[in-house]
Amino acid sequence: MSTAGQAKFTGPKQKDSSQEKSVRESNIVAAKAVADAVRTSLGPRGMDKMICSPQGEVVITNDGATILKQMEVSHPTAKMLVDLSASQDVEAGDGTTTVTVIAGSLLNAAEQLLRKGIHPTVISDSFLLASKKSEEILKSMSVPVDLSDREQLIKAASTSLNSKVISNNASLLAPLAVDAMLSICDANSTNVDLRDIAVVKKLGGTIDDTELVKGLVFTQKASHAGSGPTKVANAKIGLIQFCLSAPKTDVEQNIVVSDYSQMDRILKEERKYILDMCKKIQKSGCNVLLVQKSILRDAVNELSLHFLAKMKILVVKDIDREDIEFISKTCGAMPIANIDTFHAEKLGKADMVAEQTTGEGKIVRVSGVPGAGKTVTLLCKASNKLVLDESERSLHDALCVLRCLVKKRFLTPGGGAPEMQCSYQLSKWANSLEGQHQYCVRAFAEAMEVVPYTLAENAGLDAIQVVTELRNRHAGGDTAAGINVRKGRVTNILEENVVVPLLVHTSAISLATECVRLILKIDDIVVTR
Ligand SMILES: Nc1ncnc2c1ncn2[C@@H]1O[C@H](COP(=O)(O)OP(=O)(O)OP(=O)(O)O)[C@@H](O)[C@H]1O
Ligand SMILES: [Mg+2]
Q: From the CA of 281, how far away is ligand 1's center (Å)?
């Protein structure tokens, strides 16, 4: 931190090098503290965190990005680690704990190199070299995967689900995630938009009731005012963004009515206005109406619901603005912003729209839609909110893993194998380098061992013994050797079906290196007001 009010200067201000050092040290300490906080969550035997907000909300999670996002860190460099994990979440979706743990370990290595008097720029450059080389090493140990190979995709999704709170249900959720992904992409896709897979949460039942729906699911019930229909076959779906209630003036106004007949006229006018709108809707042939939630006034009122029920139109209200695009893509209904443009060609279609009773409350299910194949819905169920939320986050991770495979079709073995292989190959490669670079790359290689070490530690194994054995196996050319946390020893991890997409590892290493380099280059913190 800049010290104010220093003694007189002669000549330009030269920063005290000890101060520079202490800034760098404190930055490293703060960032390492964050990395240490999530270390225990790594791997299938990692612990979960319970996060309590001041409002009394509780979240239980194992997801690195979620833990860090909820943690209130104030130190600026500690925040960089939070951002690092968030960028891994965007880039790969999984590996958000790994990236933070690797960054922490690289910072540790950098700290020791700095203490030995190596200049930060040299460390930073060497780390970049090592990270580039790691990508090559990872690529060479990965195996290509075909999108038509459903079994292989399920293995990758299961690996990501195995380290979550809901790991017991991985065998059910992984195939669901794979089927969801396969139904929206084909063999030639190079990327998928995860917004085409809606993950809808509904309390009640157990995780085993989670299902894949080719269509739409609304977690709110249909309107029951005036005993309207709750089941419509051959649905013509209208999606409206305007309100079916009496208009309000733009500015706050009071109208004083002193006469009963005037009162009567106002009510009649309102009735007529709403009835006209409902008639127009009926005329277009619409028999299911989805109404967007409005913040200005009631999107529907008693009167309009009553008329719509009489016309045998099923109404689902409180549709979120964000869901409009998805609904539109799925059932082909175009959003309608004005009653005057409510025409038959804007309506969507579905074979069946029906309200169903589930464990807790009701849902409306739309099936037999023309857009099936473009979008899909995953209906998550769980008996309590904490598990339900975590189940949604875990499914998101599994879908991201599958997206990684669509983007880059390579799989690497898990269980610490890629990190150990990188570590071994990098230290071999370091011999071809000169001087300080060799020293730094070797430190980088050693730092990579943190992942197998932590996996073993979290599984309650003798970490030093296991890591040494793993190192020996990799030195002997066995690239698929990994830590088998179930058997508690080193085995061929591919036989255990533990596979991780290449992209998760490459992006973890490159993002962690980038973050560490940024931190190393900072020599002062200037606080502005
Ligand atoms: N059955 C298993 N045996 C051994 N290692 C495993 C197994 N399943 C997963 N792993 C390893 O666990 C690590 C992933 O752990 P985890 O999912 O907790 O963290 P992450 O993927 O880095 O972060 P997050 O999932 O929170 O975004 C990977 O290194 C993977 O190789
Ligand atoms: Mg994971």
A: 53
